[in-house]
Write a structure and sequence with these properties.
about 500 residues, Aldehyde Dehydrogenase, Chain A, domain 1, Aldehyde Dehydrogenase, Chain A, domain 2, 2 domains, seven-stranded mixed beta sheet, six-stranded mixed beta sheet, 22 strands, globular
Length: about 500
């Protein structure tokens, strides 16, 4: 298969050099290597659908080799002092920042998102995450307990689990690496990283930088491959102590089943169908702007996307008109184009999924307010859709109930707090929600009623390394970010001493 470097004239020299080296190999025990089978797979540039890279494909036997190497590395890594772990994480953050342009360009070519988004959001947030967790190794500590048994001292130790399998999604490839690896490494674990097969390239560059930063061999392993092969083998492996997964609810169920063999720990950050609720006393224009950004940002490929818009009836028409105007102004195009606001969907398979849901909405009787078509002026072979808004839906329709993971918004009016709370919670998911109101009592009341891991009031999609994020119900369990994430990667040992 012929591979070319797309948009080569616009790329940083470092990006060109990175893409020129093919195929992309696995990192096992500190050594870059092909898979045992010699198999590779092809990734595609979503703006054109053309081949972008050849990547070595790890099989079950590669997972076996990687786990052995990671377990051997853990015996030494657990002896590294907290201060040394801190220095390594800081060095890694510095290197990522130094290579910001290359990372942003690779994310655009591999994922499709606008280059401006990678430079403004994905890369800086990744650097911040590693710097935040770099501060934690020297602050992880146990407690002395005040027990009631005479002449006994009781204290606790917080110890790393061992080998962690991190399986990450394709929508924010670089950012999701930091969400999993930063706390796991800060806690003293070794990590086997399995990126999504659709977007493996930023993980390769990231792991090259971990080698430059000086992480010991085997502490960080890279296994590119398909979820049903590489990911499944990693989730089932008896030598893996924990799986940290972000992705679909469907795959999350499979991971839980696979992990049952050795009862390994599992944390899951899964899908969402998040309600975005606007009351009639809200700042309409600001709320509408955020409502548009929450669903059309990253082409709707966000687990926390505000895909169900509930607007109090008195201002429904005004809000939906404003959101529609925002949607129509979004410039859909090639991610490398500076004028692009929204890039293509990440893969042909996902493009087919999203357009199928749009057809389901049409066929089910929903009214298309805007979108639901292919944009003009984009490459014919790219995976592009326009921002789409549906009205006149019922709560039992597939487009209302199921996660589409694309730029498709369902708008519907409501009347009372109790009604909107009931409808917002009428879903399998419980990841995020937004509330817009000037009534502080109503805001707090609704925040308490919503079955959601995160509630944003008079804002949306706010993230900080110090604040935990995760879901209720079938949106998963466990929390990424904050000190809460460290608990996912540590054991607590109780020690009793007779005095």
């Amino acid at each position: 298969m012929t591979l070319t470097i797309p948009y080569e004239a616009q790329l940083h020299a470092g990006t060109i050099a990175f893409l020129s080296s093919q195929p992309k190999q696995l990192l096992i025990g500190g050594r870059w290597t092909a898979s045992v089978s010699g198999k590779t797979f092809t990734t595609y540039e979503p703006s054109t659908g053309q081949p972008l890279a050849e990547v070595c494909e790890a099989q079950a036997e590669d997972v076996d080799v990687a786990v052995i190497a990671a377990r051997a590395a853990f015996d030494q890594w657990r002896k590294v002092t907290p201060y040394q772990r801190e220095r390594l994480l800081q060095k890694l953050a510095d290197l990522i920042e130094q290579h910001a342009q290359e990372f942003a360009e690779i994310e655009t070519l591999d994922n499709g998102k606008p280059l401006s988004a990678g430079l403004a959001i994905d890369v800086p947030s990744t650097v911040e995450m590693f710097r935040y967790y770099a501060g934690w190794p020297t602050k992880i500590e146990g407690d002395v307990k005040s027990v009631s048994i005479p002449n006994r001292l009781n204290y606790t130790l917080r110890e790393p689990l061992g080998v962690v399998g991190a399986i990450i999604p394709w929508n924010f490839p670089l950012s999701m690496i930091s969400w999993k690896l930063a706390p796991a490494l800060a806690a003293g674990n070794c990590v086997i990283l399995k990126p999504a097969e659709q977007t493996p390239l930023s993980a390769v560059l990231f792991c090259e930088l971990t080698c430059q930063a000086g992480f010991p061999d085997g502490v960080i392993t890279l296994l590119n491959g398909r979820g049903e092969i590489t990911g499944a083998a990693l989730a089932a492996h008896s030598g893996v102590d924990k799986i940290a997964f972000t992705g679909s609810t469907e795959v999350g169920r499979l991971i839980m089943k696979a992990a049952a063999g050795n009862l390994k720990r599992v944390s899951l950050e899964l899908g969402g169908k998040s309600p975005h609720i606007i009351f009639d006393d809200a700042d309409v224009e600001t709320a509408a702007s955020y409502a548009a950004g929450s669903i059309f940002g990253n082409a709707g490929q966000s687990c926390n996307a505000g895909s169900r818009l509930f607007v109090q009836r008195k201002v429904y028409d005004r809000v939906v008109e404003s959101v529609t105007n925002h949607a129509k102004k979004i410039r859909v195009g090639v991610g490398m184009d500076a004028a692009t606001d929204m890039g293509p969907l990440t893969s042909l398979e996902h493009y087919q999924r999203v357009t199928h849901y749009i057809e389901l909405g049409r066929d089910g009787g929903a009214t298309v307010r805007t979108g639901a078509q292919r944009p003009d002026g984009v490459p014919e072979s790219g995976y592009f859709v326009t921002p789409t808004i549906f009205e006149n839906t019922s709560d039992d329709m597939a487009v209302v109930r199921e996660e589409i993971f694309g730029p498709v918004l369902i708008a519907t009016p409501f009347d009372t707090v109790e009604e909107v709370a009931q409808r917002a919670n009428n879903t399998l998911y419980g990841l995020a929600a937004g509330v817009w109101t000037r009534d502080i009592s109503r805001a707090h009341k609704l925040a308490g009623l919503l079955q959601s891991g995160t509630v944003w009031v008079n804002c949306y999609s706010q993230f900080d390394p110090a604040s935990p994020f995760g879901g209720y119900k079938q949106s998963g369990f466990g929390r990424d970010m904050g000190h809460e994430a460290l608990d996912l990667y540590m054991n607590i040992k109780s020690v009793w001493v007779g005095l």
